[in-house]
Design a protein that fits this description.
This protein is an alpha+beta fold and about 575 residues long. The chain is built from 14 helices and 34 strands.
C-alpha cells in the first residue's frame, strides 16, 4: 500500500514536471521572437523594369518605370499630384510645360526638346528620354518633372522603389534607442524585414492607427514600411519637412488706373471713319476693344478687319487698343476641340495673333471664345497658357472674356485664368438671352452680384473687369405661348416706352424698370437698361473694388450713361 502510494506520488510529480516542461516550452516558443527574414524583393514585389512609388509615406497604387536607370512616372499622376501645368497632346504625342515666360516641348521617346519665349524655338537636349509611351500610357522622366516642380525624390534598388516628397509640413518621427527589427506585421512572430541599429531614424505612418501589441507602424528613410517595438524607440517628435523650391512668378501687365473698356463691334475696314464721333460722346474710356479677329477654319486661320488707321486714331484719342478674337463670327460651326487639342494648330493660332498684334502695334488682345465644349476645357486653358507666354514676352496685354461663373461652365477654369492672364472680363449680361424659353432681364442686379462674388472667389480683384450691357430686350409672348425677343439699344427702348405711353415701374428685385403691355393679342415685356439700372450695377462694381468695367457695346448707350459710370469708377 505504502509502495503504491509512493509510486502514485512519483507519477504525479513526473506528470506535473512534464506539464511544466510543456508549458514552459510553449511559453518560450510564444515569447521567442521569430528570426525568419523576408527578403525585401518578396515584400515589395516589382518587375525589373518597374518602380514601386512611395508618395510621402504611402504606397501608391500605380507603379513607375525604370528606363536606362531613370525613374518615370505616369502622366496622370504627374499632373494630378505634382504639377498640373504639364500637358500631353495625345493627337501629336507632344509633352508641353509652360512657365510664365517659356514654353517647353518634347516629342515622345526623344531626348530633344524646345524652349519658346516669343515665337522662336530654341533646340535643347537632355541626357535621357523626357516622355515615353508604354502600353498606351505616357510616362515622364521624374528628373524632368523635378526640374519644374516642388518635389524631391530618392531612388533605391533591390527592390526598385522611389520615395517622393511633395507635401511640406510637420511629420512625426522617432529614433531607435535599442537595436531591434522592422517586421512585416505587429508581432514578434512576424518575418523580419530589416535589422535596425541604434540611432536609425524612422517616420511614423498611419498615425491614427493605435499601437498593436506594443508595435507602432513606421517607415525607414529608404521607404521600407513595417512595424517596430515602441519600447525600443525614443519618444515621438515632430520634424518639419521643407523645400527650397521657388515657384516662378506670373507677372501681370495690369494698369495702375481703373479700366473703362468699351467693345466696338466692327463690320468692315471703314470702322475708323466713325470712331472719333463715337468716342467723343463717351467719358474717360481708356481701352477700346474692336471685334477684329475671328477663327475661320479648323486649321486655326483667322480673318481680320484690323487697320493701321484705326490704331493710329485710337492712339490720338488716348485709347489703348485690345483687339477682340472670337470663335463664332467668321464660322459659327467651328470645331474648337479640333483646334485647341492639337499643339501645331494652337501654335498656328497664337503665332498669327502675336504677329498681328506686333504688326498693328496693338496694346492688347481680348480672347472671346464662347463655343468651348466641356471636353475642350483643358486644351483651352493650355492655349491661354501658351498665348500668355508670347504676350508677356512681347508686352501685349492679354484679357479673356468669361461667362458668369456657373457649375456647367466650370471647365473654363477661371482660377487658372486668373493666374496666367492679365485681366478676366466677366460678361454680366445675357442672363436671359435671345433664345431663352422664358422672358427675363438681360442683367438683373442679383445676376451682377453673383457674377462679382463668384469671380472674386477665383480671380484677384486687380485682374477682374465686370462687363455690363448697353442694351435690353423686348419680349413678345403670343396667345399660343410662343416667345421671341428683339434687342433694343437704350434710346430706342425709351422711345418705344414713350410712344406706347407706358408707365415703367421700378422692379426692386431685378434692379431695373419693368414694362408690360399688350398689343395685337400679344403680351410684351421689357426689363429696361438705362441710367438707374446701370447705376445699381456700378455700385456693386465700385464696392467690389475690381480693376474696372467694360461695356457691350459702344454706340448703344445714352450719353448720360457715362456720367453714371465715371461717378463710380473712381
Amino acid at each position: 500500500m505504502e509502495r503504491r502510494t509512493k509510486l502514485a506520488v512519483i507519477g504525479s510529480l513526473i506528470a506535473i514536471i512534464m506539464m511544466a516542461i510543456i508549458v514552459i516550452s510553449t511559453m518560450i516558443k510564444i515569447l521567442t521572437p521569430s528570426k525568419e527574414v523576408m527578403p525585401l524583393t518578396d515584400y515589395y514585389k516589382v518587375d525589373d523594369s518597374e518602380v514601386l512609388v512611395i508618395l510621402q509615406d504611402e504606397l501608391y497604387e500605380k507603379k513607375g518605370l525604370l528606363i536606362d536607370d531613370k525613374v518615370y512616372i505616369d502622366y496622370d499622376t504627374v499632373k494630378d499630384k505634382f504639377n498640373y501645368h504639364f500637358y500631353w497632346d495625345s493627337n501629336e504625342n507632344i509633352l508641353t510645360y509652360t512657365t510664365p515666360d517659356e514654353i517647353i516641348r518634347a516629342a515622345a521617346n526623344s531626348s530633344e526638346y524646345t524652349v519658346t519665349k516669343s515665337t522662336i524655338e530654341t533646340a535643347m537636349t537632355a541626357d535621357y528620354q523626357i516622355a515615353c509611351i508604354f502600353a498606351d500610357q505616357v510616362y515622364i522622366a521624374l528628373d524632368f518633372v523635378k526640374q519644374y516642380s516642388d518635389l524631391t525624390f530618392d531612388y533605391y534598388p533591390t527592390p526598385n522603389r522611389v520615395v517622393i516628397n511633395y507635401i511640406w509640413g510637420d511629420y512625426l518621427y522617432t529614433d531607435v534607442t535599442k537595436a531591434t527589427q522592422l517586421r512585416c506585421e505587429p508581432s514578434i512572430k512576424s518575418e523580419i524585414l530589416l535589422e535596425l541599429p541604434v540611432g536609425t531614424g524612422l517616420e511614423y505612418v498611419d498615425t491614427e492607427e493605435a499601437p498593436k501589441k506594443g508595435f507602432v507602424k513606421v517607415m525607414t528613410t529608404d521607404g521600407i514600411r513595417g512595424y517596430v517595438k515602441s519600447k525600443n524607440t525614443k519618444k515621438a517628435f515632430h520634424q518639419t519637412l521643407s523645400s527650397d523650391y521657388k515657384a516662378p512668378e506670373y507677372t501681370a501687365q495690369t494698369r495702375p488706373d481703373k479700366i473703362n473698356m468699351t467693345f466696338h463691334q466692327v463690320f468692315n475696314l471703314d470702322a475708323v471713319d466713325n470712331l472719333a464721333g463715337l468716342i467723343d460722346a463717351t467719358k474717360e474710356v481708356n481701352v477700346i476693344a474692336p471685334t477684329w479677329f475671328s477663327i475661320s477654319d479648323e486649321a486655326g486661320t483667322i480673318t481680320s478687319l484690323a487697320t493701321e488707321a484705326y490704331v493710329k486714331k485710337a492712339g490720338e484719342l488716348g485709347l489703348e487698343v485690345w483687339a477682340v478674337v472670337d470663335d463664332f463670327n467668321a464660322n459659327p460651326d467651328i470645331d474648337m476641340l479640333e483646334i485647341l487639342s492639337h499643339t501645331s494648330l494652337r501654335d498656328t493660332l497664337s503665332n498669327q495673333l502675336i504677329e498681328m498684334a506686333l504688326s498693328y502695334k496693338l496694346n492688347g488682345l481680348n480672347i472671346d471664345f464662347e463655343k468651348i465644349p466641356s471636353e475642350a476645357g483643358e486644351h483651352y486653358i493650355q492655349f491661354l497658357r501658351e498665348l500668355s507666354v508670347k504676350c508677356r514676352n512681347n508686352g501685349i496685354v492679354l484679357s479673356v472674356d468669361s461667362y458668369v461663373p456657373s457649375e456647367y461652365t466650370a471647365y473654363y477654369d477661371r482660377e487658372e485664368q486668373g493666374k496666367i492672364v492679365d485681366y478676366v472680363v466677366v460678361m454680366a449680361y445675357d442672363e436671359f438671352y435671345a433664345g431663352s424659353e422664358v422672358a427675363g432681364p438681360v442683367s438683373s442686379i442679383g445676376f451682377v452680384k453673383d457674377a462679382v462674388n463668384n469671380i472674386l472667389s477665383m480671380v484677384p480683384k486687380e485682374k477682374t473687369i465686370i462687363a455690363i450691357p448697353f442694351y435690353t430686350r423686348l419680349w413678345k409672348e403670343t396667345a399660343e405661348g410662343e416667345i421671341s425677343s428683339e434687342t433694343y439699344s437704350m434710346t430706342p427702348a425709351q422711345q418705344l416706352i414713350d410712344d406706347n405711353e407706358i408707365d415703367a415701374k421700378w422692379d426692386n428685385a431685378n434692379g431695373c424698370y419693368y414694362v408690360e403691355y399688350t398689343k395685337d393679342g400679344a403680351t410684351y415685356r421689357m426689363w429696361q437698361e438705362e441710367d438707374t439700372s446701370i447705376e445699381e450695377k456700378m455700385k456693386v462694381i465700385h464696392n467690389a473694388d475690381v480693376a474696372g468695367v467694360a461695356e457691350w457695346k459702344l454706340g448703344l448707350e445714352k450719353d448720360s450713361i457715362w456720367d453714371v459710370i465715371i461717378k463710380y469708377l473712381h
